[in-house]
Amino acid sequence: MLKMIDVIADEDDRPVTLQQLKKHVQAADFDDDDEQLEIFLDAAIDFVASRTALTLRRSTWRVDRCDWWSGCLNVLLTPVRDVTIRYLDAAGATQTVDAELYRWERTKLGTAEIRFLDAFSSPAVKADTFNAVQLEIEAGFDEDPNQTGAGDDPELIFPSRARQAVLMLAASWYRNREAAAEAELKVVPLAAEALMGQLRVYR
Q1: End-to-end alpha carbon distance in the chain
Q2: Partners of residue 139 on adjacent β-strands
Q3: How many angstroms separate the CA atoms of 181 and 165, rounded?
Q4: Alpha-carbon gap, residue 123 to 134, rounded angstroms
Q5: What are the φ/ψ torsions at residue 183 (nearest 5 degrees)?
Q6: Whole-angstrom Cα distance, residue 16 to residue 56?
Q7: Residue 30: which H helix or E strand, with range?
Q8: Cα 171 vs. chain centroid, distance in angstroms?
Q9: Which of 18, 111, 128, 171 is the most exposed place for a label (fewest CB within 10 A)?
Q10: Which residues pair with 64 in a beta bridge?
Q11: How far apart are CA 11 and CA 19, in angstroms?
Q12: Distance CA 189, CA 58 (A)
């Protein structure tokens, strides 16, 4: 049985910086609105992540199972960076599966397919425990395009279209701060909506 994916850690760094947003809204030369801009920026990052099904912030997630699996297990996070598998042995002690005994591969959607190799023999796990097998998944993009080293893993480079969508949303909310505005104003700018549509992961 597979339990839902739960986030267990978020990195503090935003994939789009306050300085980038301030430059975008022409507020780089004063600090009076920084607190409000940070609120809009965080909301915009989370909104774009929700609309696109992309993991924009570097984060660590956990999937709990009550037992082992056969074949391939798919984890719906995009993009996956690394996978660690732990389990509770029959005595309830936490053990880590040797990384040489399983393989994970990133799919075309950036999700992870995880399978055990022939050398793996399923050890006994603690009975009647929903988290007897625990998968820890690192996901999210690099903020710095050079972070992975000269394009070693281009799939982890933060998408420029996601950055633009975040900036456009945060700027729109900053300029139109009331819940109700003139009829022609849109909650989500059409250009940002189009960008998110291009990035959307369909599973």
Answers
A1: 20
A2: 59, 80
A3: 21
A4: 14
A5: -60, -35
A6: 9
A7: none
A8: 23
A9: 128
A10: 134
A11: 18
A12: 26
User: What is the predicted pLDDT for the residue at 153?
Assistant: 83
**142: nearest Cα among 132, 155, 131, 130:** 155
**Which are the contacts of 73, defined by CB distance < 8 A and separation ≥ 6?**
2, 113, 114, 115, 135
User: Is 89 within 8 Å of 125 (Cβ atoms)?
Assistant: yes
103 Cα distance to chain centroid: 21
Give dist(CA 159, CA 87) in Å, integer.
35
CA 10 – CA 62 distance, rounded (Å): 12
> CA–CA separation, 152 vs 170, rounded Å?
31
Block residue for tokens 């022409």: 26
**In this structure, what token pair is assigned to residue 65?**
């199972």
Q: What is the 3-state secondary structure (H, E, C) of 125-161?
A: ECCCCCCCEEEEEEECCECCCCCCCCCCCHHHECCHH
What is the C-alpha to C-alpha distance for residues 39 and 34, in angstroms, rounded to an integer? 9
The pTM score is: 0.83
User: If we measure between CA atoms, which residue out of 187, 189, 181, 175 comes closest to residue 33?
Assistant: 175
Query: What is the separation of C-alpha 159 from the centre of its chain, rounded to a whole number of angstroms?
Result: 13
Q: Are strands 59-65 and 133-139 parallel, antiparallel or unpaired?
A: antiparallel
pLDDT value of residue 30: 94
pLDDT, tens only, 30-76: 999 999 999 999 999 999 999 999 999 999 999 999 999 999 999 98
